[in-house]
Structure formats: structure tokens, C-alpha cells
Design brief:
β26, α22 and β27 form a beta-alpha-beta unit. It is built from 31 helices and 28 strands. The chain has four domains: 238 residues, Calcium-transporting ATPase, cytoplasmic transduction domain A (Distorted Sandwich), CATH 2.70.150; 293 residues, Calcium-transporting ATPase, transmembrane domain (Up-down Bundle), CATH 1.20.1110; 156 residues, Rossmann fold (3-Layer(aba) Sandwich); 183 residues, Calcium-transporting ATPase, cytoplasmic domain N, CATH 3.40.1110. Strands 10, 11, 12, 13, 16, 17, 18, 19, 20, 21 and 22 form an eleven-stranded mixed β-sheet that branches. The protein has an eight-stranded mixed β-sheet with strand order 8-28-27-26-9-23-25-24, with helices on both faces. With 897 residues, it is of the alpha+beta class. The radius of gyration is 35 Å and the shape is elongated. 49% of the residues lie in helices and 17% in strands.
Length: 897
């Protein structure tokens, strides 16, 4: 639809006529037709990078460009020089390997891009619409002009909407108008020519409902919305490198400069001192020296590390997704494994989230209610005797009236769990409808209560529900023996004592009140109320939570429970699931100074009756104490705490759009076990990154040392330029990628968090890299030396085969330090087997062997390679054990792997 500034002037009937919409909403067929006409409800995005563009980007690498220049120089020497066939072959091999390197880089980036793109598709938000007279939850991208949308507190407005109904509706429009104060909305038509900020009966895409409820008609979608017009040509947010990638890039720069220095020395040594090149002309020596130096740089610099990191993170998020957690940012994955405190909401996370009314306190008597979960079947009992529920009609009606949940035809209940329980308790008594609601004062965490005004046959009635102490503070009367009598202090105390008794039994208690009203004076609606009674409900801990808490505590991960429930309820549930420690209320927290709280934050594991703003204070104190914190939340006011936490975790089922946008991770099932599973996967990803970084640097450092010391000792190259480039393809390619796809090792949650909080390459890893580089150099130059009497070609062939096998043995050695079965990563077995087969083809297929100037190696060489491989494997295991002991006793900075 074209933007029409007069939309805010139209009446409801005129709006329906303009958009061809009925009271029952659009039909599915009409919505589908409009979706084809207007397109999906989303902003234009930057053009997707094509596979060809990804491939071309591989040639931006300075090392790749230098190799191409080297190949071109080789061809130049061939065509304008002595036309030696070796120059033509070497140039062709360099180009072939360049294309192999760029192909591997393309595969890495293409898979990473597609994995990230797949995750983005899962980040879409939902909207509740009215279609064919039924409420439906749909992806916001499927909204079309004319749709009728239900708006609730905490949702992000999915499109430009003209309001038809508004109950204390407030929105935050700072993203559009810059106005920081929430704007109160109305449903009535407005006159005059009004700017966006004054169109009080309009809500706009990208803004947020901070309070109240509303109902309206979609008038603009996608790029035609107000925010879409502003951002029409704005591309997606620029993708930033993860912290790990930044650290590894810095490491790569350090290694790069070091490698360049070594390469320059190698270049000078070959030109002036290498005996194997003495018969060549100066121009040829310079050219070949340049090619060797470049090849050495390519072999030494781990240019593929950032791409492999991205692949590991992207596929790690896919594994986490299979365990019902959606990680919104790749950079968050590396933080997951480091978490040492989980601040979890009780309701729906530690507990099942299905509240059921168990007891009702009314007119001085306690009634028991049977039934489980969301089942609509159940009976009412007094002193063990089954009764007719008509006695409880007033309190059940109050629970049904003060309610924004709804019961679908398939008996599924949608809404807040406590309100779901109230609907079900009323339905059990046969109460399914009330009078027409004409006004609402929404619940807020500050007031801890809500009220509605209902038009009944007898007149207007205000019903109020909320925390019992808050309700009692507004009441002056009570029902006693069916009569309304004054409420005195003694009766109030009895009610509060009953409330405490119910709460101590791990029940959540809500109080109810009412009074007849003649007008809608909002200042007095919730005063002079008649107290009705209490409904107490239970949300039992999930069966698996106690075991999960025990596993977390055993590994050094502290579990902190946060709830808005009564302190006694919080203590009862905490005790049942194994959370030990001090428990305080939000009121207690509020009176603590920062210094006092920072001292006590290490001992407090249960927070009850807290407001959302308390969560931010808890996060701040824990982080100041040096902890890495995961914080759960679902409401609008939870957003600051979710953003401030190291890992903000939003509820996918009950969470608001605002909470989901502020969070780093979204739980698709709202379960505590999913947080623990995500931490396990995060730890596995951290280990994988450490494994392949260790592997790549070990091999690359070893290759540099082999060439450098080979030149010093033998005055010749033990490995040619094309051999070095080929080794880079074989070892830095598929095996390294496959190593990053390892599953998390068994029992990874049993390790302390500190293991995953250190640097990727710590002193321990550097010690391993140094030792392997030395061992690889000795082993490779040893076989080169033994074969040298038979000729330089035979010696290089043996060293060529040996160094690749030794580097693949390094994979087995690194992986043996983790409890992961071989079958746990079949891709790694395939990659290693493929590398060996390719190398065998180079050595044993004559046409390929001639290109690399190698010959088949004999039985002695294979015996040497096999014996030394086994020896290296066990020596590395022994070194691991020595480093473990040094780490534990002598050198605490050499932290465990």
C-alpha cells in the first residue's frame, strides 16, 4: 500500500473498507495473494555474495598473488631464456597448486557463509494475527497489509499498524523518532496534519511495546514502512571478525613477519651459498630463490586459520541448534565454554513452566484441586470430600477475568503460565466466559498486580489479582460467611500467614479482590477493594534439573536461581534441585550498598522477589568478581541484564522479542538442560579451535625449520618450492578443517571452567609447538640424510613423503589427548586417508612423480617412516605427561590443554 499520512484520521469502518478487511481478519487465500503482490515483510538486504564472488575473493591474498607472479616469472624465463623444460613444469605446478589453495579457501568460506545464512533464517520473529476468525502465530515476514495483529507487552512491532484497540498501550519509538520516553497510544481517529511523533494511534515497525496491549490493522510492510523508507538502501550490518579470529590474525601477523625474515635469509643463502644452484645463472638462481622463499612463506603462514575458525564456529552453532539453542552471534560460541556462573530464572527454566492450581483459600476454608498440567479435567475437594465448584465461582471468575492467556479449540493454552493455570482452574468448574472487558490496568513488575473492569448483567465490576501482600494493601473489606465485612489487622495477618504456609510448600500464590464500580476513575479503581481469597499453584522442577545442577556444581559452574516468587517458595525449589547457599529478596538487595553486595555476591545463590533491574546489578557484581556470567531472561526489562551478561540467554517460547534481540542465545525449549548442553558444545568448539591451531602451527613451524636447517647443514633444499606448496595443500587443507568438526569429548562438563578461559595458544601449547617443530626437523632431515648418497631426488622424495606422514601423526597425537572415539569424526578419517592417497599418487604414479622430480621410495624408507612415526607418537605422549606435571607443580602458567 502507498504511504498515506491520513490513515490516522480514519475510523475503524473506513480502515476496514480501505484495506478490504473484515472483523474476522483476512482469509489465508487472500493473505497469500497479498504476499505475492506486496512481497515479504522485511527490509531490503545487501545482495547475497555469489559463489563466483567468493572464489574470486581468494585471489586477494597477497601470498596467492605473489605465487602467481612467481609462476609468471618462471614462464618468462622459459620463453625468453634457455627454454628448460623444468622451468615450464615448475611454473605450471605453481599455478596448479595456486588453484588448489584457492579452491580449498573457497570451500571453507562457501560452507561458512551458507552455515551462517542458514542460522539467519532461524532468527525471524513471530506475530499473532487474526485470520479466518482464528488467532494464529506466524512468521513476521508473512504479514501483509490488511492483517489484523494482536500486540502485547515486550513484542517488537512487526509492521506499520493503525490501532483499533489500545489498553494502556505504550511503545518505545526511540529507534524511529529519537524520543526516549515511551509514548502512550490511543485507538481513536486523530485530525489535522501530524508528524510521525504525534500520530498516537499508529505504531511503527521496529519500535517496541513497553506496556499494555493493543489490536490493529497492518497498513505498511517491508520497505514501505517508516523505518523501511529510512533504511531502504542500508545494507546488512557489516560482519565483524570474532575475538578469536582477531587474536589469530594478530598471531598470524607475528608469524608472518618472522617467516618473512626467515624467507629473506633463505633467499640470500640460496643465491650466494646453496651448492645445488651453483650451476645456474644468476638470474635463474634469483628466480628459484624467490620461488622457494615465497613457497616457504606460504607453507609457514597459517593464512587459512580465520576461515577454519569460522567454519568451526558455524558448524558448532548447528550442533548447538540441534540441542534446541539458537546462537545469534558466532562470536558468542567461543564464550559459552568459559561460563562459570549460570543465573537462571526459576519458572519455566528450572521448572516445567506448566502451573497448576492446587489449593484455593476462600472464605476462611482451604480447597484442594486435582488435575495435572494443562489438562482441563479435575475436581474440587474440601476436607477430603468432593464438592460442587459453584461455591468458588467468585474467586474462579476473578482469575478468569484478570487474564490475557487464551484457550484454543485444541485445548492448548497460550499465555503466561500463571494465567494459564487460572484459566484451567475456572474451566474445571465449568466457567468459560465472563462479561465484556471494557478496561485494563496491566500488570507491571513494579506494581505486582493487574486489574480489569468487566461489564456484567449486574453492572460494572473491577477484578484485581496480584501478590497477596499488594492486594491486601488495597483491600478494606473481606468475604466472611458469604457476607462482606470490614477487613481488620488480625484477619490480614491470618491471610499472610496462610500465604506463607502455601509458599513454604513451594506453591506460587496469587491474591484476588473485587468491587462494584460506577465509573472508570483510574485513580481509584484499585482502592477500597473486597478481598476474595488466594489461588496457589505449583510449577514442579523438571525431572532432570537436579542432576544437571549437580553436574554443573561438580565442574565448578555455579548455578544461581532468580525468581519473582516468594522467598519461601524459592528456597523450597532450590533445596529440591540442589542449589545451596544464601537466599535474599529483592528488597534485601535494594538496601545493600555496592561494597556490601560485592562481598556477599559469592555466597548468595537464591534471589527471590526480584525486579528485572536487580538482575543487572547481580550481573555487574558477579562480573566485577571475575566471573563469566550467563543470564536468562524473557521480559522487556530483562534486556539490560541480558546485554551486560557475557552470555545473555532469552526464552524462545515465553520470551519477548526485545529479550530475544538483546540476548546472545535463544532457548527454543526454555529448558535449563539446553543451557548446559550449549555450554558443553561451546567447550567442545573451544577445544576444536585449540586443536587445529596447535596442529597448523606445529606443522608450519616444523616446515620452516626443515628448510632452514636443511640449507645450513646440507647447503641444499631438502624440499623444493612445489613440494612446500603441495604440503601446504595436503596438511593445511582437509585434515585441519575436519579436525575442527570433532564432537565435544565425553565428560567435558567435568572440567573446571578455567580450562576454557585461557588463551587459545598458551605457554603449554607453545611448548608443544616448539618440541614438535624440533622433532619434525630431526626426523625429516634424518631420512633426507640417509637417502642423500643415492641422489638428491631420492633424498627429497623420502623427506617429502615422511614430513606429510609425520604431520598426520601429529593429528593423532593431538586428538589422543581427548576422549573422542575415532568413529566420532568420520570426516577426519576420510580427510587423513585422502591426504595419504594423494601423496602416494604423487610419489608412485610416474607422470605425477616426474612433475615433482621424485621417485618411488623403497622398503627402508617406509620402515624408517613407520618406526619414527610410532616413536614420535609415544615421545609426544611422554612429553604431554611431562608438561602435565610441570603445569601442576612447577609452572602454573603452563595451563592444561
Amino acid at each position: 500500500m502507498n504511504a498515506d499520512p491520513a490513515l490516522y484520521t480514519l475510523k475503524k469502518e473506513e480502515l476496514f473498507d480501505r484495506f478490504s478487511t473484515q472483523e474476522t481478519g483476512l482469509s489465508d487465500e487472500e493473505a497469500k495473494a497479498r504476499l505475492e503482490k506486496y512481497g515479504p515483510n522485511k527490509l531490503s538486504e545487501k545482495k547475497r555474495v555469489s559463489a563466483f564472488e567468493i572464489y574470486l575473493s581468494q585471489f586477494k591474498s597477497i601470498l596467492v598473488l605473489i605465487l602467481i607472479v612467481a609462476a609468471a616469472l618462471t614462464y618468462t624465463v622459459y620463453f625468453f631464456g634457455e627454454k628448460e623444460r623444468s622451468d615450464l613444469i615448475e611454473g605450471s605446478l605453481i599455478l596448479a597448486i595456486v588453484f588448489l589453495i584457492t579452491a580449498l579457501g573457497f570451500i571453507q568460506e562457501y560452507r561458512a557463509e551458507r552455515a551462517i545464512a542458514a542460522l539467519k533464517k532461524l532468527l525471524a520473529f513471530k506475530a499473532i494475527v487474526l485470520r479466518d476468525g482464528k488467532q494464529k502465530e506466524i512468521d513476521t515476514t508473512f504479514l501483509v497489509p490488511g492483517d489484523l495483529v494482536i500486540l502485547e507487552e515486550g513484542i517488537k512491532i512487526p509492521a506499520d499498524i493503525r490501532l483499533i484497540e489500545a489498553a494502556s498501550l505504550h511503545t518505545n519509538e526511540s529507534s524511529l523518532t529519537g524520543e526516549s520516553v515511551p509514548v502512550q497510544k490511543v485507538a481513536a481517529p486523530l485530525g489535522g496534519s501530524l508528524p510521525i511523533a504525534d500520530q498516537k494511534n499508529m505504531v511503527f515497525a521496529g519500535t517496541v511495546v513497553t506496556r499494555g496491549r493493543g489490536f490493529g490493522i497492518v497498513v505498511e510492510t517491508g520497505d514501505d514502512t517508516q523505518i523501511g523508507k529510512i533504511a531502504r538502501f542500508v545494507a546488512e550490518t557489516k560482519k565483524e571478525e570474532t575475538p578469536i579470529q582477531k587474536r589469530l590474525n594478530r598471531l598470524g601477523q607475528i608469524l608472518g613477519w618472522g617467516t618473512i625474515a626467515v624467507s629473506v635469509l633463505v633467499f640470500v643463502f640460496i643465491v650466494f651459498f646453496a651448492e645445488g644452484f651453483s650451476q645456474l645463472s644468476l638470474l635463474q638462481r634469483v628466480l628459484h630463490s624467490f620461488i622457494v622463499a615465497v613457497a616457504l612463506a606460504v607453507a609457514a603462514i597459517p593464512e587459512g586459520l580465520p576461515a577454519v575458525v569460522t567454519i568451526s564456529l558455524a558448524f558448532g552453532t548447528q550442533r548447538i541448534l540441534k540441542r534446541n539453542a539458537l546462537v545469534r552471534q558466532l562470536s558468542s560460541v567461543e564464550t559459552l565454554g568459559s561460563v562459570d556462573v549460570i543465573c537462571a530464572d526459576k519458572t519455566g527454566t528450572l521448572t516445567a513452566g506448566e502451573m497448576t492450581v492446587r489449593e484455593i483459600y476462600y472464605d476462611g476454608a482451604t480447597y484442594m484441586v486435582s488435575g495435572v498440567g494443562h489438562s482441563l479435567s479435575g475436581d474440587f475437594f474440601l476436607a477430603g470430600e468432593k464438592i460442587k465448584p459453584a461455591t468458588l465461582n467468585l474467586i474462579l471468575k476473578a482469575g478468569l477475568a484478570c487474564n490475557n492467556a487464551r484457550l484454543e479449540k485444541n485445548e492448548a493454552v497460550l499465555g503466561d503460565p500463571t494465567e494459564e493455570a487460572l484459566i484451567i482452574s475456572a474451566y474445571k468448574a465449568g466457567l468459560e466466559t465472563i462479561g465484556k472487558r471494557i478496561h485494563e490496568v496491566p500488570f507491571s513488575s513494579e506494581r505486582k498486580m493487574m486489574s480489569v473492569v468487566v461489564s456484567e448483567e449486574s453492572g460494572r465490576v473491577v477484578y484485581t489479582k496480584g501478590a497477596p501482600e499488594m492486594i491486601l494493601a488495597r483491600c478494606t473489606k473481606i468475604i466472611d460467611g458469604g457476607r462482606i465485612v470490614p477487613l481488620n489487622a488480625a484477619v490480614k495477618k491470618n491471610i499472610l500467614d496462610k500465604n506463607d504456609a502455601l509458599a513454604n510448600a513451594a506453591l506460587r500464590v496469587l491474591g484476588f479482590a473485587y468491587r462494584d464500580v460506577n465509573d472508570l476513575d483510574q485513580n481509584n479503581l484499585e482502592s477500597d477493594l473486597v478481598f476474595i481469597g488466594l489461588q496457589a499453584m505449583m510449577d514442579s522442577p523438571r525431572k532432570e534439573v537436579a542432576d544437571l545442577v549437580d553436574r554443573c556444581v561438580g565442574s565448578g559452574i555455579r548455578v544461581v536461581m532468580i525468581t519473582g516468587d516468594h522467598l519461601a517458595t524459592a528456597k523450597a525449589v532450590a533445596s529440591e534441585i540442589g542449589i545451596r547457599g544464601e537466599a535474599i529478596t529483592g528488597a534485601d538487595l535494594a538496601i545493600l550498598s555496592e561494597a556490601e553486595f560485592e562481598k556477599r555476591v559469592e555466597t548468595i545463590n537464591v534471589y527471590a522477589r526480584v525486579d528485572p533491574e536487580h538482575k543487572l546489578r547481580i550481573v555487574e557484581a558477579l562480573k566485577k568478581a571475575g566471573h563469566l556470567v550467563a543470564m536468562t531472561g524473557d521480559g522487556v526489562n530483562d534486556a539490560p541484564a541480558l546485554k551486560r551478561a557475557d552470555i545473555g540467554v532469552a526464552m524462545g517460547i515465553t520470551g519477548t522479542d526485545v529479550a530475544k534481540e538483546a540476548a546472545d542465545m535463544v532457548l527454543l525449549d526454555d529448558q535449563f538442560g539446553t543451557i548446559v548442553a550449549a555450554i558443553e558444545e561451546g567447550r567442545g568448539i573451544f577445544d576444536n579451535i585449540r586443536k587445529f591451531v596447535d596442529y597448523l602451527l606445529s606443522c608450519n613451524v616444523g616446515e620452516v625449520l626443515v628448510v632452514f636447517f636443511g640449507l645450513l647443514i646440507f647447503k641444499d633444499l631438502p624440499l623444493t618450492a612445489v613440494m612446500l606448496l603441495w604440503i601446504n595443500v595436503i596438511t593445511d587443507g582437509l585434515p585441519a578443517i575436519a579436525l575442527g568438526l570433532d564432537p565435544a569429548e565425553k565428560g567435558i562438563l567435568s572440567f573446571p571452567p578455567k580450562k576454557f578461559q585461557g588463551q587459545i595458544i598458551n605457554a603449554r601449547i607453545w611448548a608443544e609447538i616448539a618440541f614438535f617443530g624440533f622433532a619434525l626437523t630431526v626426523a625429516t632431515l634424518g631420512i633426507f640424510f640417509f637417502n642423500l648418497p643415492e641422489g638428491l631426488g631420492e633424498a627429497r622424495a623420502a623427506a617429502f613423503m615422511a614430513i606429510i606422514i609425520f604431520e598426520l601423526v601429529r593429528i593423532a597425537n593431538i586428538r589422543s589427548g581427548y576422549k573422542i572415539p575415532l568413529k566420532g569424526n568420520l570426516w577426519l578419517l576420510v580427510a587423513v586417508a585422502a591426504s595419504i592417497l594423494l601423496q602416494m599418487a604423487i610419489v608412485y604414479i610416474p607422470s605425477l612423480a616426474s612433475l615433482f622430480k621424485v621417485s618411488p621410495i623403497d622398503a627402508f624408507d617406509w620402515f624408517y617412516i613407520a618406526t619414527v612415526s610410532l616413536l614420535l607418537f609415544f615421545i609426544f605422549k611422554l612429553v604431554d605427561q611431562i608438561l602435565d606435571r610441570l603445569s601442576a607443580f612447577a609452572f602454573p602458567k603452563l595451563t592444561n590443554k
